[in-house]
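LAB NOTEBOOK - FOLDING QUEUE
OPERATOR: T.R.
BATCH SIZE: 2
PURPOSE: Compare the predicted structure-token outputs for two unrelated chains run back to back under identical settings.
PRIORITY: normal
REVIEWER: second-year student, initials M.K.

ITEM 1
FIELD SEQUENCE / FIELD STRUCTURE:
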Amino acid sequence: MSSDAQPALPRAGAPLGLIALLSAALLINYVDRGSISTAAPLLEREFRLAPTQTYLMLSAFFWAYVPSQPLMGWLADRLGAARVLAAGVALWSLSTVLAGTSAGVVQLVALRLLMGIGEATFYPSALALLAQRVSDRHRGRATAIVQFGAQVGPALGTFVGGLLMVRYGWRAMFMVLGLLSLLWLMPWTGQLRLARPITPARPGGEGPRFGTILRQRALWGTMLGNFCSNYAFYFVFTALPLYLVNERGLGLLAMTRVTSAFYVVDAVSCLATGWLLDAWIRRGATASRAYKTALALSAAGVGTCLIGASGAGALTGAALLLVTGLADGLNNPSVCALTQRFAGPLATGRWMGVQNATSNTAGIIAPIVTGYLVQVSGHYTLALWLTGAVALTGLIAWLVIVPAVEPVDWRYAAAGTAVAGQRRA
């Protein structure tokens, strides 16, 4: 058997403690990551930033987050995902605390870069742990619960962070959120003993190499589709507070409520999607049909709603934003479950590291392009049109490029042989 042989299948069932802690870590991840967007209206005024400067500052996190992903995926598969994730949480939490001491934009940007390195550990580590310890029949629900943190995090972060900021200022907000984040490490110590690095069947084997993973058509399709959905999400994630304040004329508290409502709807949709996907597959649907249907509906819904919101009145625009959140929730559990199914427990860390690195370039591009379009036009209309068009492009990835959703047999893939489950695509 080659060194790229498949390991044993994940144990049946779903370890609820692990899943809950991963969801909590992702919640913390997005609370800390999004804190600068909540503070953006105050930072813009205090540091006298032009729109292009503001959005360049908002994108700084991704300049470190993106290139760190493949390395973190390799470390997760090599050293143990639980250990790598613990180090990442500590690093990004301390970076958030120190952001509250920033004397200016340069120091703030430097700390955001450091935070990006820490947060780059999450998705490769978390998906590797899920692929190793959760069976296929629970994958949709387990992934949805973890991804639930990505929606609740921005909602909770915006609401709590907004209240702290209004009362005590943006510096106190960063410090309090960062210190609270460090508490997660206490219950995680138990997982450090349970979640060991998975090893392939032959001693000394290390699973598929990056070159083997990069030859998979499925990887390139998921990277494009994930990029398109991420572009729309990061537009909302970075621009929504400024859009509501500067374009729609809302105050800070009203902005906080609307933004939080978006993420609450997104979170509920995410959880419901995970349960529905598992139920649909149990009743006979293929993983390919279930995951691709959800991803296509998400791309179509997000793109259409954002374009429609550009010319809508206040009430209709608010409703379309909430429907955008509903459609985005269809994407989150589907894309992560699809990735785990393709890569399997042996390669998910590295696969996700490459996929997330590419797809999260959207976090760099979306804020910079949005800032330029807003500064040139004075409004958000062009930015909404472009974001909607990018989201709709995801349909090509999910329906045309991504093959049938079947596990890659790394024994044949390493030799350049077509994957049995993907020949029909």
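ITEM 2
FIELD SEQUENCE / FIELD STRUCTURE:
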Amino acid sequence: MRQRVLTVYVTLLVAACLGLALPLCGSIAARGTSDMLLDRINDTARFAGLAEPSVLTGAAGTLSGELTAYDQLYGIPVVIVDRDGRVVAASREGATLATLDPAQDSGGELPEAVRTALAGNRMGSDTVVYPWQDGPLIVAEPIGRSGEVVGAAVTASPTGALRRATLAQWCVAWAAVAALMVAGIAAAGPLTRWVLRPIDDLDEATRAVSGGSLGTRVRTAAGPAELRRLGESFNQMADTIASMLESQRTFVAYAGHQVRNPLAALRLRVDSLSRHLTPAGAPEHRLALDEVDRLSRICDSLLTLARTEDAEHSVVWEDVAEVVEERVVSWAPIAERAGAVLVREGEEGVRVRCVEGTLDQALDALIDNALKFGGPGVRITVRTHRVPGGPDGPGHVDVHVVDDGPGLPAAQLDQAARPFWRDGHDGVGGSGLGLSIVVTLLELQGADLSLRPAEPHGIDARIRLPL
């Protein structure tokens, strides 16, 4: 938009300057020509009054001396002609109408100004001499006797001085216009910034809000009324979004916190039932305890999710291989009872700096999904792989949770991380929040989750952690 405003501004400035300069130059040329023309008309009219007897008698007499003196004084040739265009008297010997303006080839015809005068009319004032014209200014006055035109007095004034004066004034005018244009173009940048300042403020606020700074607001105390209304609408929208997110976080945190205490009490009571069970009921008792532990982990994930908008997070160094080993050991009994095989592979001694508790909760969600949807006999491999850094960055660590279950089509893999998405498995519980929570947790430390098909079948869930 800044470029458009600058383009419109500069275009209007140039058009206004040209619209001022061109008429001004025309007025300067017309004014100079008018002054010269008025002076020559007076001189020519005087000669027309003196030349009447000479035209009637056909003898120049003393008129030639008057014309010669005038020509010598001002350098302006004068010719007196009769009604047929024949020269009666001239200021220069051998002067004719053709010699007054050699540049004009009239083909033997009388000049237009002379024809006008012989017709009894005076020369109009619409003649303008421009700097690029090099001919003289021809002025003709009719010579009359008792209302009858008997001849004409003609002067041919050189226009060199007039053209130079006009050109000099034009240069001054164009210099002033150029200075005005330069000043206007120099002011274009600050003026455009001033005009677009409310829009720039709105753009900065929008970027800040989209980046997570929900407390950013637009200043609405100044600026055009339309942009003030737009800023107020933006602030109201930001307030609504912040209020909704705060309500959502409060609800999630409240729900997770309130459920933890009953779950802890429930686990103690279920655990205390072990001494009252028969050996046949022991497996079911262990399954109940596992489910209670799983619910506890879900509550922890809810609380962590509710804190993802906090300004400060507890960031610690963690050994990726140790975290993977702990989660594999924790899930091994559940995998065994489900008839699945859970193994760990990969490198040792790889440490990353991440938000405390996010990696193990992400692995819990991925392993749980693999067990839940992989089917009986599924094999789950948790593999750690370090990718060295290069010119583009310090490198990263990939943690793969790969199963050989039925998998999902590629189109559904792209949607699996959406909140509340379900793939339609019959008889399998779940809210569709597990993977979306994993994505949110990983984003806290700049990590990401991607789902790809495994070979020959299954799902390869990859957690990429920056080093």
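REVIEWER COMMENT (ITEM 2): The radius of gyration is 50 Å.
FOLLOW-UP: none requested
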